[in-house]
Structures are given as C-alpha cells and as structure tokens.
Amino acid sequence: MKNNYRKLKFSILLQTVLVTALTVFVGGFLLNYVIDGVYNDSFAKGFVDFLTSFHMKEQTAINLYWKLIGNNKTFFMIVGFLLLFALFFYVALTKMTRYLDQVGNGIENIVSESTEPIHLITELKPIEIRLNEIKATLKRQELESVESEKKKNDLVLFLAHDLKTPLTSIVAYLSMLDGNPDMSKEEREKYIRIAFEKSLRLGELINEFFDITRYNLQDIELEPVEINLSMMLEQLADELYGVLQEKCLTCEVEAEENLVVSGDPDKLARVFDNILRNAIAYCHEATKISIGAQMSRGNVEITFTNHGDKIPGDMLQTIFEKFYRVDNSRSSGTGGAGLGLAIAKEIVEMHGGRIRAKSDDNRTQFIVTLPSGDKKEEEQKNEIHTHRRRAFGGRTGHWKNTQRKKGKGDLEQS
C-alpha cells in the first residue's frame, strides 16, 4: 500500500524542493544585491540618523548599530530565509490542499449517491480506487438491504397465503362431517384425522409466521432428504378429497414406482398442493384432474393436467409472478391473492428445478421438473421423516396400483 502513494510523495517532495530553491534564489538575490549592495550603506546611515534624531551621540549610535545589526548579520539572514521559505511554502500549500479538495469531492460523490464514478488527480489514484470500492460496497449493501427486506416481506406474504391452505381443507372436511350425520364410523374417523393433521399444519405455519416477524428471517431454508415422490403425490391427492368433492371432481395419479428426489418434503408438498389447488380452482366442474410423474432425461417430471378455460399464450410466462391473475372473472371466482404459483416457482427453483405451463382449448398443464435423487440403501427406504413429522417414504409394494381414481370410498391416509 505504501508504494501506491509514490506519485503523491514525489509530487510533495518536488514542490518542497522547488520552494527551497526559490527561497535560496530570492534570499540570495536580496542579500547580494539589496542588503549587501544598493541599500547596505543607506540602511546603516539611516539607522544612525534615526538614533541621532533622538539626541544620541553619533558614535554611540554607530556602536549600537554594530552591536544590534552589523555583528548579527548571520542571525538576520537565517530569519529572513525562514520567513521567505514560510511565505513560499504557504503558497505551495494552496496547491497541496487541492488533494484534500479532491478527496472531499470524492466523499461528496458518495454521500450524494451520484451514479458517476469518482475521478481524482493522478497522485491520488489509490484513494480514487479505494473511494470507488467504498462507493460500490455501500451501493451493494443498500441493494442487499432492500432485497433482504423484500425477501422478508415476500416470505411473510407467502406464509399468509399458505395459512389459508390448511384452513380451507379443515373447513371442507368439517363441512362433510357436519353435512353427513349418517357417515360410517370409519369414514368419520378418517376425515377427523385428516382435519386434525391439517390443524397441526396450520399451527406450524402460524408459528413460522411469528418466527419471521420476531427474528426477521429473510430466506426460505431447505431441509433436504430423499423423498418417495410417488407416495407423496398419492397422499396429497387424498388430502384434497374434500375440496375435490365441492366441484364434483376426481383426481387420478399415475406415477412410476420408485421415483426418488432429494428435496425438502414440506416445501415440495407446498408446491404440489398450490398447483393442485390452482387446478381445482380453474377447472370445469365434474371433470378429472390428472397427475403424472416419470423419469425424463435423468430428471423427474411431474405433470398436473386439468380441463378448463385456455390461458392465453402471452400470459403463460407471467402467471408465475406474484399477485398475477389471468383475468378478473377468474379472480372473483377463486378469491385468491395470486401468490400460489409464485411460491411454487420459487421453491422449485431453489431445488434446482423449473416449472412451466402449457394451455390449449381443452386443457392446461403445469410441468415441474426436478433433479432425481440417488436411491438410499435398502434399510433406509422404509421411512423418510420430514419436518412435518410425516413419512412420505415407504415400500412401493404398497402402491402396486399407481393409477387410481379418487372416490369417496377409497381415500387412504398414510
């Protein structure tokens, strides 16, 4: 770092040498041609005449002159040279203070948040580089602060949106229980159990919401494990049975066996749940929603298909934006905030995957592509615990018939 200021040190040294040389030159000129030259005798005679004007004897005045001035010529020369040097150095400092002015202008550039880079004179190039680094750092920190605040706000919005998801299921199942007093004991226990699990999930989301507001959490953190995707999709479809019945819908799952991905089960469940609820909201009544999952080019591809109104082609790329709704009629029909697909897209991309949509006059498809996970050893396949304390893993032999239509009588809760 010391060598970085070589030009500055050389410039100051050069100015000091010039001041010294100028002092010697001017001082020597005055000494030789003025003090010891033209005005030498005149100054002595004037000094003596001045003292004799106060009635002092001439010889006494001459002796006083030599005692005070004539014999102390060296002292007065030194004082004179110092005064000249101080005068010239003060003038030189005016130029040196330009360095401080330059630094001050650079600081002002930072404070004023100007978009222009800082430019200083050549001697201050290291300071210019450092000030530009400080400016870039402050700008980056400002952007990071804005981005982190945006992430926190988005996450709060996401959680607020997701609070409605388990609540909707709870209301749906409790409505079924309330509207069917003759329901069998087995079915009643089954629906009560699902409503209870959804209630627990609602409590977890509320706790997560309070954690964010309390500790200012700003990022969604993943807790990846290996997931039996086939079983997860079956289970999610089962859990939405009550919501499907409201529109007389059926859900069919067709997934290859032993599909394993590495990811956060709770977050991926949120993705698939949001896509399914979107499909339910926008499909025609008394139609079928199909869920397919298979390997494709080393990745796992999950396809959700529903029959409903076509989404215009120019809107397919914007439906994953936050708060986006295709049109007002759809918005009024579903009452959502337009966050579900934005949440799904963000979580899928955090897993290294992607999500896209296709739509024509007959159907709409949402396609999620995830990297496939390595299979665990045989003794680890039986159970995979998630953050929700639920197991999505299991022996695939329990799911020999992977293509099943969801009906009121075949709801299975794992």
What do these coordinates show?
The protein has 414 residues and is an alpha+beta fold. It is built from eleven helices and eight strands. The protein has a six-stranded mixed β-sheet. Strands 1-3 form a two-stranded antiparallel ribbon.
- Taking the alpha carbons of the first and last residues, their distance comes to 67 Å
Helical amount: 55-70%
In the CATH hierarchy, the third-tier topology of the largest domain is known as: Heat Shock Protein 90
Q: How do the helices and strands follow one another from N- to C-terminus?
A: HHHHHHEHHEEHEEHHEEE
CATH class of the largest domain: Alpha Beta
**What's the number of structural domains?**
2
Described by strand count, sense and barrel closure, the largest sheet is: 6 strands, mixed
- The secondary-structure class comes to alpha+beta
Secondary structure tally: strands? 8
Widest sheet: strand order?
A: 6-7-5-4-2-8
Poorly predicted regions are 327-337, 375-414
Output the CATH homologous superfamily of the largest domain.
Histidine kinase-like ATPase, C-terminal domain
Shape: rod-shaped
